[in-house]
Amino acid sequence: MAGFFLVLEGIDGSGTTTQAARLAARFTAAGARVVQTCEPSRGPIGTHVRQLLRDGATGTPTDPGALALLFAADRLDHLAREVEPALAAGAVVICDRYVLSSLAYQGAFLDVDFVERINARARRADLTVFVDVDVPTAAARRAARGLPADQYEVDELQARVRRNYAAFAARPALGDVRTVDGNGGMDDVERTIWTAVETVWRA
Ligand code: TYD
Questions:
Q1: Phi/psi of residue 109, nearest 5 degrees
Q2: pLDDT tens figures, 184-197
Q3: Using CA positions, which residue lies closest to atom 14 of ligand 1?
Q4: pTM, full prediction
Q5: Largest Cα span, the chain
Q6: Whose CA is nearest to atom 4 of ligand 1?
């Protein structure tokens, strides 16, 4: 059976990490083999990017163009190391963030066509779900989590990123993108996402 590459997207605090775990359980219950992963990846480039983002919150932020290239480099490295082998083995790969994150976040600082171009070698996801959450709701969830913020976790920027998500979701290069209202309770959101995902997966 061919693999299925599913991506979850949203602003910081939109619940994609929780929803990825719940989707993984749904797919497993439906008999699929699931690989759950994320970007920035846990590989060497992704680990470096996470460190740069943490440093950027307190010190000098990395040049936006350099960061965009690092996110894109991590993506190709992540595909080669983890995603492509899992898909080739027939797994459902659930990835927390992918190309649309780069368009939405790096597109807040850079020409989006440049960001799209440097990501042109990354394979298209079979389905991207944008979990759309209001900025104050997402901020409250981040505060409840109590983790140290990275350099993007500022409400004004999150509002811009959210607008970018809505604007760039329709870019043809991304393939199938569905927007889901993520403001409700986690159970409701899970059901809405699963309904959208299952239809595409079984098609
Ligand atoms: P995130 O998923 O929030 O990691 P964690 O849950 O460990 O904090 O990702 C870290 C940040 O990276 C997040 O603010 C979004 C940002 N990001 C980009 O700006 N561009 C990208 O291409 C990706 C994948 C993430």
A1: -120, -20
A2: 999 999 999 999 99
A3: 152
A4: 0.96
A5: 48
A6: 40
